[in-house]
Design brief:
Rossmann fold, about 100 residues, 1 helix, mainly beta, single chain, two-stranded antiparallel sheet, 5 strands, three-stranded antiparallel beta sheet
Length: about 100
């Protein structure tokens, strides 16, 4: 495990997610550095929750590759409070 600020600890490589034949996520490439703070914003139905479920390891039915560096874990929790909505979720990378 490293606390180096330039160490990539999580990557999504070519992630695509389809519901029936509709693409919700298409060919996504992301990398998160150790200590990074991220947010996901977008319109309803744009794939925010799908992206976070893949990141958290809850959804394993997607095309592409999600890679978590050895020694790190991903946790998730349902969002709560005003404006959270039914499908709200959040993820957390940790060591």
């Amino acid at each position: 495990m490293s606390t180096e600020p330039n160490k990539v600890i999580y990557s999504m490589v070519g992630i695509s997610k389809y519901y029936e034949k509709k693409a919700v996520l298409k060919d996504i490439y992301l990398s998160y550095f150790y200590g990074a703070k991220i947010g996901v914003i977008g319109l309803n139905g744009s794939g925010k929750s799908s992206l976070l479920r893949i990141l958290a390891g809850v959804d394993k039915e997607f095309n592409g590759e999600a890679v978590l560096s050895q020694g790190y874990t991903v946790g998730s929790a349902r969002a709560a409070g005003p404006g959270a909505g039914e499908a709200g979720s959040s993820g957390c990378l940790g060591s």
